[in-house]
Design a protein that fits this description.
Shape of chain A: globular
Radius of gyration of chain A: 28 Å
Strand order of the largest sheet of chain A: 1-5-6-10-12-11
Strand content of chain B: 5-15%
Helix content of chain B: 55-70%
Largest interface: A-B, 41 and 49 residues
Order of helices and strands of chain B: HEHHEHHEHHEH
Structural class of chain A: alpha/beta
Structural class of chain B: mainly alpha
Oligomer: heterodimer
Largest sheet of chain A: 6 strands, mixed
Number of strands of chain A: 18
Helix content of chain A: 40-55%
Chain lengths: ~750, ~190
């Protein structure tokens, strides 16, 4: 042992220590970098989700509006009645005889020039496989075959029970897939990776096959084809998007009318019926329950098994298929006695005073904070009760609203309710669903799990509830189950366990918000019933990107959507900023900006964190708000004919306008008259308390009528938005948001009181 | 009369002096009041920042976050602690009986103190470069993939496999199978901004 060795040891020790310290430093630095990326990713996710849910709430409001009109409006003139008639004929549900007419396909000729797939019935496995291949090659199935397939599908579905039972004794392997939302690539990928359906390979698709994505029709064709070919092994559950009212807003109706210009109407009508026949749930080995949304503390599987699911047309609105004369008469009498003094309101106040669904919707609550409201979801409001309350509170609003809009006050109810005059008498029909039954279905199609115990109203979505681990436990024990598989919510990894691994969310639409936003997944169950998850992302490009690049891409898309929303509320934002700028400096601080933006948009987003990405300012903590708003407008503005304020209004209410359009155009002709558009928009904007003058409405309508022929063509209507979208994407070579979910705008603007 | 004058003069100058002194006192008071106000504003600002970062991970909107997200939250607030330091902080904010969740009420005061004391400052670029240079004993200007993996997964507070893969995906030039750390640092810094 010499002094040199000890010095060597010392050196070695010092070097080792240095290396250790250096490594620690680098790791520390890197972990911070990753954390900041994670924060950005989470913010981006919040942006997409809050915009999505705001859109859903909009949809609910829109339907509240129409519901109210339908229940309380009494037209005083032929014009008004005809107008409403046209608007609401879609509420007239076709009788079985009529259904035959709608699904009549034999009269449709398939031309020789048709190069797409041919179907013959009964379907063989080869046909179904050929269909997948044809769609992969971007072919389109002829309307005749579509209708034929739908006709056969309906016949098959009608024999199925509400809750289907599967056993692993017969099919050793059962694969459960979640939401697809029109993303055909994901379906093709699943079949490619997991194998096509067969007697040995059972599949359950858990709802939400349509809307948002661009190939909803093709997905339905494939799913229905395989279901007909393997009826015992291939199962479908209904989702909340298998609903013609949702389809009006979220893109499926648009897709059908675009792909099938001649027969689209027929196809839609038939589909409306087919959706109602979809089963509600699937049970595997009596142990694993598969349904689309979730459960509530009142979920009653026996009741669900017994009810008449075909009569539940839409979960958005509790409306029975028909009302007979007697029922309508009683209803009117009830309304009349409670509102002897007040004139019939044919115009509504804000939806806030309307209890439309079992819970009150507070439009001024941001999605996140609304969860703390404790409205029990198990307390349905009686229809009669709500009518009386509504009449009472509305009476006072009436005068003001009517003056504002200039419509005549209707003093007497002379005519019977609109629907009844057209409805056929009830003859030998199965019993109608009760409100309780309807609510049971809403719960299983709309609910979401939460980590807290209990069960409360799902105010974010506007339907169903949030259910806690205790509710899950209670249900599983009551029916002797071991696992609940559901979908309905997009998850970054395509799946998520919760409630002590008793609830599994499975979501199969990868890149749902944007390319790179999330993975898709499916779950396999064998005889042991232990779930085996498989994940994927149907876009090779994303695999090559680093995490940072992936996050940046998705982030850009989210920020673009957010900037659109900000622009759509420019005037309100300006007012709000001015309030914080008493000294008229033209500047606003970060703190005030964040508060102002939240109070206008109600999205519950971390605005302070988003400031550097939304605001381009050299000053650290202050913003020249006017020029900022102008810059936003420059990004969005395009068409010379449409002035800035009009465009802003259009933009903000884009989705609602489109939905209204489609409802008015009930025969799917593709045209509505200027006047119809004006009237409806007027009604609607007062209802939503959007401050817009009569002139503005005329201008709006006229400016949308591009070829000036007195009619608004749906293409013209959408052209206005397409132009804006185009100009927004001009600067970006990469994708603009491809699905419509980024476009749902928030409608709850604060007009002048 | 002179006396009166003198007296009056005296009183006046006394008054003046008094006013002056009062002026100084009030000036001092103003200054300390301003300082207090400023620090209150700064405090309010900290609180808002912390609240916002916390809420991003408060998925249930019930003022709790999963304990595994605390590191991310702290780091996104501008701090650069080591894993060990995060564990120490966690000990301060956890419940007596760890529930897996951290409550906002406990997190806020601890985090506020961290921000006020400017703890866990981020690492300047040149210090970071120095660290890489320590590992690159031969001073070549790069580290091979194997070397990087060895240091990151065996030294310091080792990376998980996932962390290592992620770093490699962005850092390693596939042609040379090495990382030019100076370029890497520059790229990362630009990314951040």
């Amino acid at each position: 042992m010499g002094s040199s060795t000890s010095i060597q040891h010392q050196f070695a020790f010092q070097n080792a220590e240095k290396a250790f310290k250096a490594a620690t430093l680098i790791q520390r630095w890197y972990r911070r970098y990753v954390a900041r990326l994670e924060m950005r990713r989470q913010c981006t996710w919040s942006i997409f989700q809050s915009i999505e849910y705001a859109g859903q709430q909009d949809q609910i409001k829109l339907h509240d509006f129409f519901s109210y009109l339908m229940d309380h409006f009494t037209p005083s003139s032929h014009n008004e009645r005809d107008f409403l008639d046209r608007m609401f004929t879609e509420e007239r549900f076709p009788q079985d005889a009529e259904m035959e007419k709608y699904s009549d396909y034999e009269s449709i000729e398939v031309p020789d020039s048709y190069t797409g797939p041919h179907l013959s019935f009964p379907l063989l496995p080869d046909h179904a496989t050929a269909l997948v291949e044809a769609f992969r090659l971007k072919q389109q199935l002829h309307a005749r075959y579509v209708l034929n397939l739908l006709h056969e599908t309906r016949k098959h579905l009608a024999q199925l029970p509400n809750i289907n039972r599967l056993s692993t004794c017969y099919s050793e392997e059962i694969t459960v897939c979640g939401d697809l939302h029109g993303q055909l690539d994901d379906l093709i990928f699943i079949f490619y990776k997991n194998g096509l359906p067969s007697p040995e390979r059972a599949y359950v698709f858990n709802g939400d096959f349509v809307d948002r994505g661009k190939d909803s029709v093709e997905i339905l064709m494939v799913l229905f084809a395989f279901m007909l070919v393997y009826p015992k092994e291939f199962h479908l559950n209904r989702g909340n998007h298998e609903d013609h009212m949702m389809n009006l807003r979220y893109g499926f109706t648009k897709e059908v009318m675009h792909k099938y210009k001649t027969h689209g109407k027929k196809i839609l009508r038939t589909l409306q019926d087919v959706f109602c026949w979809l089963p509600l749930a699937t049970l595997v080995d009596e142990k694993v329950l598969i349904l689309h949304g979730g459960v509530s503390n009142r979920t009653d599987l026996e009741l669900l098994a017994k009810l008449n699911r075909h009569k539940i047309v839409s979960t958005l609105r509790y409306k029975m298929r028909k009302e007979n004369e007697k029922q309508a008469e009683e209803k009117r009498k009830a309304n009349q006695t409670s509102s002897a003094q007040t004139p019939t309101p044919w115009f509504l106040p804000q939806s806030r005073s309307l209890p439309s669904s079992p819970f009150h919707l507070r439009s001024d609550k941001a999605p996140k904070t609304s969860r703390s409201s404790s409205i029990p979801c198990g307390a349905p409001l009686e229809r009669k009760e709500s009518s009386w309350q509504v009449q009472h509170s509305v009476g006072l609003e009436l005068e003001r609203c009517q003056q504002q809009v200039g419509f005549p006050v209707i003093r007497e109810k002379e005519e019977p309710l609109l629907l009844t005059s057209k409805a056929d008498p009830v003859v030998g029909e199965r019993p109608e669903p009760t409100r309780e039954e309807w609510k049971q279905v809403v719960d299983i199609l709309w609910s979401d799990p939460m980590t807290q115990e209990g069960c409360k109203a799902n105010t974010v979505r506007g339907g169903g509830c949030y259910f806690g681990p205790d509710v899950t436990e209670q249900l599983l024990q009551k029916y002797n189950l071991q696992l609940l598989i559901r979908s309905h919510e997009c998850k970054p990894e395509g799946y998520e366990f919760c409630h002590n691994r008793k609830v599994l969310t499975i979501f199969s639409a990868s890149n749902y918000y944007e390319v790179g936003s999330n993975r898709g997944a499916y779950v396999k169950l064998g005889p042991s019933l232990s779930p085996h998850i498989v994940q994927y992302q149907a876009n090779k490009a994303t695999h090559m990107l680093t995490m940072r690049q992936r996050i940046s891409r998705v982030e850009e898309s989210a920020l673009r959507a957010l900037r659109e929303k900000l622009f759509a509320h420019s005037s309100d934002l300006l007012d709000e900023f001015k309030k914080h700028d008493a000294d008229k400096t033209g500047l606003i601080t970060l703190k005030d900006w964040a508060a102002a933006v939240e109070s206008v948009l109600h999205l519950g987003l971390p605005w302070r964190m988003l400031w550097p990405q939304l605001v381009n300012t050299s000053m650290d903590n202050a913003l020249e708000y006017k020029s900022w708003l102008e810059d936003l407008a420059k990004e969005q503005l395009s068409h010379e004919n449409i002035q800035s304020s009009l465009l802003e209004t259009l933009y903000r209410n884009r989705s609602n306008l489109e939905t209204i359009f489609r409802i008015i155009d009930s025969d799917h002709s593709g045209f509505i008259s200027l006047d119809e558009f004006r009237q409806t928009w007027k009604l609607f904007s007062s209802h939503m308390n959007i401050n817009i003058t009569d002139d503005c409405i005329c201008d709006l309508a006229r400016s949308i009528d591009f070829n000036k022929d007195g009619h608004i063509d749906i293409n013209e209507f959408l052209e206005a938005f397409r132009l804006v979208e185009q100009s927004c994407s001009e600067g970006q070579p990469s994708d603009c948001p491809q699905s419509t979910n980024a476009n749902d705008s928030d409608c709850s603007s604060s007009g002048a009181p | 009369m002179y006396c009166l004058l003198t007296d009056r003069k005296a009183t006046w100058s006394n008054k003046q002096r008094l006013t002056e002194r009062r002026g100084i006192i009030s000036c001092n008071e103003n200054r300390s009041r301003d300082r207090k106000k400023n620090s209150q504003l700064v405090l309010a600002d900290f609180h808002k920042k912390i609240k916002e970062a916390f809420e991003v991970f408060d998925h249930e909107s019930n003022n709790t976050v999963d304990v595994r997200e605390i590191g991310t939250i702290i780091r996104s607030l501008g701090c650069c602690p080591s894993e060990g330091e995060i564990h120490d902080l966690l000990a301060e904010v956890e419940e007596e009986e760890p529930t897996g969740y951290i409550r906002y009420e406990k997190f806020l005061p601890v985090m506020t103190k961290v921000l006020q004391e400017r703890r866990y400052r981020p690492i300047p670029e040149d210090v970071l470069l120095g660290a890489f240079e320590v590992l690159d004993s031969a001073k070549r200007g790069f580290l091979t993939k194997e070397e990087l993996v060895k240091y990151m997964t065996e030294e310091g507070e080792p990376f998980s496999q996932e962390e290592m893969e992620e770093m490699l995906s962005a850092a390693i030039d596939p042609g040379s199978n090495s990382v030019n750390y100076k370029e890497y640092i520059t790229m990362m810094v630009i990314d951040e901004n």
